[in-house]
Amino acid sequence: MFVLQALRDEAHRFAVSFHRGQRRRLTLRSALSDIPGIGPGRQRQLLRHFGSIKRVRAASVDDLAAVPGISRSVAEAVFAHWAKQPLGAGVVGPQPTPEQAAAAEPHAEEQAIEAAFGTGGPAE
Question: Is the pLDDT of residue 93 over 60?
């Protein structure tokens, strides 16, 4: 019995550590990694030069090309990538507290229940 418990515990430990590694890798991804031609080295150079993604985004093509290791074509690709996306894209605003949400729409919970389970009588 003890051997089976140890085997189960080891399998769970392995699976949990694997998934933690996957989540860590995905959450530490930079917004710069979506740009073609920008690898980890160029991401590091841009962030060291400008200090933040916001400053990289606000930079002109000439400013981007002035970074050591960034060619004019790569600077244009970075600039074009940011030009396609609005400044507030992906930014989530402040969420209302449950009390504020309830005050704004007092019957939201009832409406959600009705939508999920239907409002009619017994099933046909």
Answer: no
Token pair of 33 as six digits = 């990694």
Res. 116: pLDDT tops 80: no
CATH for 37-85 is 1.10.150.20
CA–CA separation, 111 and 41 (whole Å): 51
**Farthest CA pair distance, the chain:** 71
| Residue reference for tokens 């073609």 | 36
Q: Which two tokens stand for residue 16?
A: 């949990």
Which two three-digit tokens encode residue 114? 């009705």
Dihedral angle, C-alpha 118, 121, 122, 124, nearest 10 °: -80
The pTM of this model reads 0.48
